[in-house]
Structure formats: C-alpha cells, structure tokens
Specification:
This protein has 196 residues and is α/β, with parallel strands linked by helices. It contains five helices and nine strands.
C-alpha cells in the first residue's frame, strides 16, 4: 500500500521484480540504476545470499511528474530466485504496489518460470493480494538465446491474465525501460484513484 507523507507531499510506492533465479531481475535493476542521473536515484544496495543476489534502490523519476500535487517515489526491489529463500521473497513482497515478473526464455527454465509465478501468487495471497487486482507486467528476458522459446509459447504458458508483456535482453538494456515505463504507468493510474 502506498505511503503518503503529507508534509513533503510525497507518495512512496514499492515495485518488486519477481521471477526464477538468474532470470535477469538483478540485471534489470542494475541497468536502470546505471542509466539514471544520481540526482534522481538513491544508492544501489545489494544483499547477497549464498546462491543469488537481491537488490534494492529508490529513485524519484523526473519524467513521471506528480499526481494532483503529490510527487511519486518508487522503491524498487528484486527477490531472490531460489526456492530456499521463500521467507525473504515474502518479506520483500510485503507492501508491494506493483510487480514486474521476469521470465527466462531458456527452454530448460520453463518449469522454473511456472513455479516462480505460482509461488508469487501464493505469497501475494498471504497478504490478501491477488494478481487480477494488482498493477503488474511480464518481461520475457534472454530473447537473444539461440534456443529461446517462442514468444507465443511463453505468452501461452505464462500470461494467462493477458497483462502487458515485453521482450527483453536485459544485459543489453533492450526492453528494460519499456517494461519499467509500463509498470510505472499502471501504478500511476492506480495512485490517481488512491489520492482522488
């Protein structure tokens, strides 16, 4: 749930990048952070686990503007992809306002994609949240793999709710900001009703 600071007229929101381990969640946030001016973003904070990384940083995007006189601040997080860190995933999801689900185009990761999406829905349910009532988008990453699943197959597998989806090669930055803009737009539309 967004946090409103009446004194500063700021709305703090939380965007979480979710998906299987090594699907590109961290790479997305690193690319975004590197492209933004230091005046519009905070420090990149990394909390490494034994087998994965979780990152967080916040930024105040200049191109988003304000809603009814309120400036919007996004706190952005990734979750650890490995199943053994589910308690951390839940902790990071607590208070989420929007989600980017990052799927892996490698056919060998097809089951991991399913399991991660199902895990995300179950964890959201613990907070009485559901994907059909939340702003979220899907990013199909690693589209440069020679063995990548077809986009049609990934959409059929993963995007049963028909949310906006994007192809990406996060290591090159392709599709990274398109994904961020889409989830930001959905979140801003939600916030507009929140502060009405």
């Amino acid at each position: 749930m967004p946090l409103l600071n009446n004194r500063t007229r700021e709305i703090s929101t939380k965007i979480v990048y979710y998906g299987p381990g090594f699907s590109g969640k961290t790479t997305n946030l690193q690319f975004i952070h590197n492209q933004l001016s230091p005046t519009t973003r905070g420090d990149l904070i990394s909390m490494a686990t034994q087998t994965d990384r979780t990152l967080s940083f916040d930024f105040l995007p200049l191109d988003i503007g304000s809603i009814k006189g309120w400036q919007v601040r996004f706190a952005m997080f990734t979750v650890p992809g490995q199943v053994e860190y589910n308690a951390s995933r839940k902790l990071i999801l607590n208070g989420v306002d929007a989600i980017v689900f990052v799927s892996d185009s490698d056919p060998a990761r097809r089951i991991d994609n399913f399991e991660s999406l199902e895990n995300m829905a179950l964890n959201l349910a613990d907070f009485e949240l559901s994907l059909d009532k939340m702003p979220w988008v899907m990013q199909h990453n690693k589209r440069d793999l020679s063995t990548a699943m077809t986009l049609e197959q990934m959409e059929l597998d993963m995007n049963t709710l028909g949310v906006p989806s994007f192809e990406s090669i996060a290591t090159e930055g392709l599709g990274v900001f398109a994904t961020l803009r889409a989830v930001s737009k959905l979140l801003m539309e939600e916030l507009a009703t929140f502060v009405a």
